[in-house]
Specification:
Elements: E1 151-156, H1 160-165, E2 172-176, E3 182-189, H2 192-198, E4 204-209, E5 215-221, E6 236-240, E7 246-252, E8 260-265, E9 270-275, E10 287-292, E11 298-305, H3 309-314, E12 319-323, H4 330-348
Antiparallel strand pairs: 1-2, 1-12, 2-3, 3-4, 4-5, 5-6, 6-7, 7-8, 8-9, 9-10, 10-11, 11-12
Length: about 350
């Protein structure tokens, strides 16, 4: 066995350790070292070709060692330890194809997605009220509801005290659209003496409230006559929106046989006319008042609807309907609504639960 090189002998400057006598044959192992037998890793062996210390057995740290929650508040993640959420792929897409992200709709699983209402369609608010349309220019506050409807239903509330005793109480009405959603709530503002002494001919102030209990319309009816025998003192009704700002009036025209009314704007110009029937008393049928334009064409109607024998016989709680063009000015629509209340008091309001209907205007 030849002696190892002396101190001045040359060897690779990048060798991991100098030659030693305890190596195989007294010489250092060739560089690069071959590593432990059958390792195939290419790393230098330990002293004396000792094998690397074994690591922990498979599964010692669980299936997800790096992703198990720590028993203490975790600190910042080390570089390369960021956890990514698992990628979601749309059905029938190959793994890794990068499809568009799946948009999860709100709501419970298995429920249909929410429906988007069309613009201008009446929408419901809390308590069965119609939601107020937005972005209506040059519209009096509270009349935005009238821009998207062409028909209103007016239902008078049944007063049990009045039905059983004949004691006249203040009238209350619910104004709805064709979907049954509440639009307004109307309340008569009169005193007890006026209601029971003047009966259906009584003057009144009618407050029309919206969902927020704001007074959006105000109707004022003075004490006047309705008979054709007094042509200079016929019925009128003033419409204000908001209260104090007159937007239209309803005036009774002199007529012997049929009820006649004029719908006027804030300037006093007649925009529509109302023509009623000769007899306002009806059995099992509706009573219609035509809404006529200045050229004589019918553009709508106000109808007193048959509400059943018991309601008609024992109460003065009536049901009304009103139709008008969709594109009609909201101020004129509000004036037509005031005309409906005036017609109710003149022809269908009972005095002591007694009918006062009569043919013509006598």
């Amino acid at each position: 066995m030849s002696a190892p090189p002396g101190p001045g002998a040359a060897y690779a400057p990048y060798a991991p350790y100098p030659p030693s006598d305890d190596k195989i044959g007294g010489y250092a192992a060739p560089y690069p070292p071959s590593g432990p037998p059958n390792s195939g890793m290419g790393y230098p062996p330990g002293p004396g070709n000792a094998p690397y210390p074994p690591g922990p057995p498979m599964g010692a740290y669980g299936a997800y060692y790096y992703f198990q929650p720590a028993p203490y508040p975790p600190g910042p993640l080390a570089p390369g330890m960021m956890m990514h959420q698992p990628q979601q792929y749309a059905p029938s897409q190959p793994y890794g194809a990068y499809p568009p992200p799946v948009m999860v709709q709100p709501g419970m699983p298995g429920q249909p997605p929410p429906q988007v209402a069309q613009a201008g369609a009446p929408q419901a608010a809390a308590g069965g009220w119609m939601s107020i349309p937005q972005g209506i220019p040059s519209c009096p506050p509270g009349l935005e509801y009238l821009t998207s409807i062409d028909q209103l239903l007016v239902h008078q509330k049944v007063e049990l005290l009045e039905a059983f005793t004949g004691f006249e109480t203040a009238n209350k009405y619910t104004v709805k659209n064709t979907l049954g959603q509440k639009v307004y709530w109307a309340v008569e503002d009169t005193d007890c003496c006026t209601r029971n002494c003047c009966g259906p001919a009584r003057p009144f102030d009618m407050k029309v409230l919206d969902y927020y209990q704001n007074e959006v319309l105000h109707f004022n009816r003075p004490l006047r006559c309705s008979s054709c025998c007094f042509p200079c003192c016929l019925q009128t009704l003033e419409v204000s929106a908001p209260p104090g700002n007159v937007i239209g009036t309803v005036e009774q025209n002199w007529s012997i046989f049929t009820p006649q009314f004029s719908i006027k704007d804030q300037s006093g110009n007649t925009v529509l006319r109302i023509e009623g029937p000769f007899c306002t008393f009806s059995i099992c049928g509706d009573v219609e008042f035509k809404v006529v334009a200045n050229d004589g064409s019918q553009v709508g109607k106000i109808s007193k609807q048959w509400s059943g024998f018991a309601r008609e016989a024992f109460t003065d709680s009536d049901h009304f309907g009103i139709n008008f063009p969709m594109d009609l000015d909201v101020r004129v629509k509000a004036t037509l609504l005031g005309c409906l209340f005036l017609i109710d008091y003149m022809f269908f309001e009972k005095s002591g639960n007694k009918e006062s209907d009569r043919p013509g205007m006598f």
